[in-house]
Specification:
single chain, alpha/beta, Udp-n-acetylmuramoylalanyl-d-glutamate--2,6- Diaminopimelate Ligase, Chain: A, domain 1, 2 domains, five-stranded mixed beta sheet, 10 helices, 15% strand, disordered N terminus
Length: 300
């Protein structure tokens, strides 16, 4: 009996040690079951994730359940960028009832559906989710708050730059010198992107890389440029009348500062893929898979 108990405690410690140290939870906070427990509700999975997020649960966040009943037993998990109709259909095929999505499900930041009640696209998607009792939970604010930022680590891992990650300055990556042309080629190949947009001289030597996946906004992106003075800024999405114009003027001043725009989804999907390897050890009895929502545009 003593040996069995020691083995259990050892296994439990290993499972919990797979993530950063878990903060103390008071009695007022949601309870979670052991990660080794074979049967968990979807809400218990969410609560377990939140134990690893500094300051969670947040009073104000968009990271809420968008559809379904979180008290049902979890049958499987899909991680994705957008819970598109195609991703929902994949969940049905895989008999999965929990989708963790990084971005909104219903076409606006807060997933407000009051203006969509009579819309046929919303109705179809909402009815599909209800019919199959699928829970969609957004994991945006919390995933970016995780130490390290889960999206940032996913992108760094895909690019093969995790060894250059600096915990004290996570947005700046210093790599061996490479031309802008080579950097673009490497980014497209590593992240599986068909095309990117850029501003700069393809022969420019790049070493200091400022990496800002997603859509941080013009002011945040420009302040990153001011602070780090990188050779190139790699972003997901820009307001073309903000960051792009700043870079264009910097180029006119002959400053060695270039811009690569990956695309919003392309720059953050790796973070949701990385979530699989982060989450799976914590819930070994629940299958976690990544289903990409894919690039929606075509080139004419």
């Amino acid at each position: 009996m003593k040996k069995s108990r020691r083995e259990f405690l050892s296994k439990l410690g290993f499972a919990l040690g797979a993530s950063s140290a878990l903060p103390h939870f008071s009695a007022a906070q949601p309870s979670v079951v052991s990660p080794l427990h074979a049967k968990m509700s979807i809400q218990q999975v969410i609560d377990l994730i939140l134990t690893t997020i500094p300051g969670a649960p947040f009073k104000e966040t968009v990271d809420t359940i968008k559809s379904g009943d979180g008290q049902q037993e979890v049958r499987g998990i899909i991680t994705t960028m957008f819970a598109t109709i195609d991703v929902v259909k994949q969940a049905v095929v895989q008999n999965v009832n929990f989708i963790i999505a990084h971005e909104p499900t219903f076409y606006n930041h807060r997933d407000d559906t009051s203006w969509l009640e009579t819309d046929r696209v919303f109705q179809y998607k909402n009815d599909l989710l209800k019919k199959h009792n699928i829970v969609v939970w957004r994991f945006h604010d919390y995933w970016h708050t995780h130490k390290p930022d889960g999206v940032q680590m996913g992108v760094l891992t895909k690019l093969g730059w995790q060894k250059y990650f600096n915990v004290d300055n996570p947005r700046l990556v210093v790599i061996p010198p490479i031309s802008l042309a080579e950097l673009i080629t490497h980014s497209k190949k590593s992240l599986g992107i068909r095309q990117v947009r850029f501003i700069g001289d393809l022969n420019q030597v790049c070493k200091r890389i400022a990496l800002s996946p997603g859509a941080a906004g013009g002011r945040s992106q420009i302040q990153l440029l001011q602070r780090e003075k990188p050779d190139v800024l790699i972003v997901g999405e820009i307001s073309e009348w903000e960051t792009a114009e700043y870079i264009r003027d910097a180029q006119s001043m002959q400053l060695p500062m270039s811009l690569i725009v990956l695309g919003h989804a392309e720059s953050e999907e790796p973070g949701m893929e990385w979530l699989v390897s982060w989450l799976q050890p914590k819930i070994p009895d629940v299958k976690v898979t990544h289903v990409p929502s894919n690039y929606p545009f075509k080139e004419a």
